[in-house]
Amino acid sequence: MSWLTDYVRPRIRGLLHRDVPDNLWTNCGSCSQMILTKELHRNMNVCPHCGHHMRALVADRFAWTFDEGSWTQAEVPKVPADPLGFRDQKKYTDRLKDARSRSRLDEALAVAHGKISGQPAVVAIMAFEFMAGTMGTALGEAFIAAARLARLQRAPLVVFTASGGARMQEGMLSLMQMPRTTVAVEMLKEEGLPYIVILTDPTTGGVSASFAMLGDVQIAEPKALIGFAGPRVIQDTVRETLPEGFQRSEYLLEHGMLDMVVERKDLRETLGRIIGLLNGVRTEGQPDGPVPDAAPPSQAA
To answer: Domain boundaries in the chain?
Structure first.
């Protein structure tokens, strides 16, 4: 070996080597463009090239939804960690520990209360980063706690959905959360409190078949996948080619299943305007003119 190989080459490699963080760049899943992660976060996880709305963490959604410094995260009830003693390739309790370690969340639904455009609101956000946002008994209890908090504060409940469906490790107990969360929604409606749902990508399975589609106002982010079963499963079942854009936000809006599709940067303003209209409160930027009287809670639809 020559001195060039033994001495010069290692020195040059050492001079050229720089520690580059693994998360410095993010690849857009739609247009495949590389985006600086910091720039992407400043843009609310929306691709600046094609407008693709990427998934977002719970903490970020809270910060983007509430007025700055106005919100407080709420405690939710604890439930038995493994009611069925389930095990597949690994124990369910171990899966929960891994999910909590990676996401820094206790469960797949987080609840907070604060103000949106100066108006009180309770917000519940599903965490896709926690076991794909699957619905189990803990999520059901958290949703019911959010509804009770909204009733206690006489405030609207805003729910962001993102889920792969029911949590198989809890079997029938997971499926029972569908009627339980539906009853919680009815409790809000009996009190005349607004229930607003923002569907994000993806919202599927038992979540889409229960509380996700029961909002007084149904909003979705652009091109979000929304449905019960996946399009490939449906196509294989009916043996027909599905329409273009099937189960996407824009398709559902066109067919009357949504009230609006709103870009992430406009969500806070849109929510503030909707809550103000439902409460009979004029919000900033609302056109001049009389504000419709809000019906008393006992008379609201």
So the answer is: 18-54, 56-279
Strand partners, 73: 112
Which pTM value belongs to this model? 0.85
- Measuring CA to CA, which residue among 41, 77, 91 is closest to residue 61? 41
User: Would you give the distance in Å from CA 117 to the centre of its chain?
Assistant: 20
Whether omega for the bond prior to residue 202 falls within 30 degrees of 0, making it cis, is: yes
Instruction: State the sign of the Cα–Cα–Cα–Cα dihedral 65, 196, 300, 180.
Output: negative
Per residue in 268-277, pLDDT tens? 999 999 999 9
pLDDT, one tens digit per residue, over 4-24 is 566 556 665 655 555 556 678
**Domain spanning 56-279: which CATH class is it, in words?**
alpha beta
User: Nearest-CA neighbor of 54 among 70, 74, 32, 71?
Assistant: 32
